[in-house]
Specification:
- The protein has one domain.
- With 272 residues, the chain is mostly helical.
- A hairpin with a 2-residue loop joins strand 1 and strand 2.
Length: 272
């Protein structure tokens, strides 16, 4: 068994006009992800010989940020914890406490990015492919934030690397946040970056990310404790074993398979 590092979720705490404010690692990693995306997205575009004007570059980054935050938060509320937020609606705005859904965030980004690009008559796939390595970095940082927060832990286990998480009882559990950090952050970054550099078919990086994330998340859900365990204990799992996360991931796998199939049936999309 490995010892869970006792890292405070708060980087700093301070009082402002009688209010106790916290700057948390989870929120810090989100901001850091946006900064990395803003700085390095242009370099990703250059790999494919793409260029965006300053106006379009900043507009697209803003649309993506908006999609991540709104989609991620709404997705978590609707998919995983709706009864709680109906009881405590003001908690909806406590984003720094955690509680973001990747599935919701991904949908929010896709919708926001597609709407912006369509409005300005820019091609979706080439620009989406260039963003995927950076999305993987942001996702990996988010999982580190989950780990420091001591949340989204796994099931009880006897594996040598199991950890006892604060608030999760006295038995060691799978550190699923670290599994996801490695697979969804490190592996997805490597794969999508290599595709960006070596595969010239527009859309392959985007759909590969969607499909591989779905596969990784579907598998990890088998050893990850569901977000709302009481619901599953009361009503049971879908089909006897599937969580909401696995259903959403399965939809991503199916969408990616259809997307990749469609790429090889259409003519190459021209850039504008």
């Amino acid at each position: 068994m490995l010892k869970y590092p006792q890292i405070s979720p708060d980087i700093v705490q301070f009082n402002l006009f009688g209010l106790d404010l916290h700057i948390r690692w989870y929120g810090f990693f989100y901001v850091l992800s946006f900064i990395i995306g803003y700085i390095f997205y242009r370099r990703m575009l250059k790999i494919r010989g793409l260029h965006l004007s300053k106006e379009h570059y900043e507009g697209l980054i803003f649309a993506i940020m908006l999609g991540v935050v709104l989609g991620g938060r709404l997705g978590y509320i609707l998919f995983y914890n709706l009864p709680y937020y109906l009881r405590y609606p003001l908690e909806i705005f406590s984003v720094w406490e955690g509680g973001m859904s990747f599935h919701g965030g991904a949908l929010g980004v896709i919708i926001a990015g597609w709407v912006y690009l369509r409005k300005h008559k820019l091609s979706f796939y080439p620009l989406a492919d260039a963003a995927m390595p950076l999305v993987a970095i942001g996702l990996g940082l988010g999982r580190l934030g989950n780990f420091i927060n001591g949340e989204l832990w796994g099931n009880v286990t006897t594996v040598p690397w199991g950890m006892v998480f604060p608030g999760a009882g006295d038995l060691p559990r799978h550190p699923t946040q670290l599994y996801e950090f490695f697979l969804e952050g490190v592996v997805l970054f490597i794969v999508t970056y290599l595709i960006l550099r070596r595969c010239k078919k527009d859309g392959m990086g985007f759909w590969s990310f969607i499909g591989l994330y779905g596969v990784f998340r579907f598998l990890i859900e088998f050893v990850r404790e569901p977000d709302d365990l009481d619901v599953y204990r009361k009503y049971g799992y879908f089909l006897g074993f599937m969580t909401i996360g696995q259903i959403l991931s399965l939809l991503m796998i199916i969408a990616a398979a259809i997307g990749i199939w469609s790429l090889y049936r259409q003519k190459p999309e021209s850039n504008e």
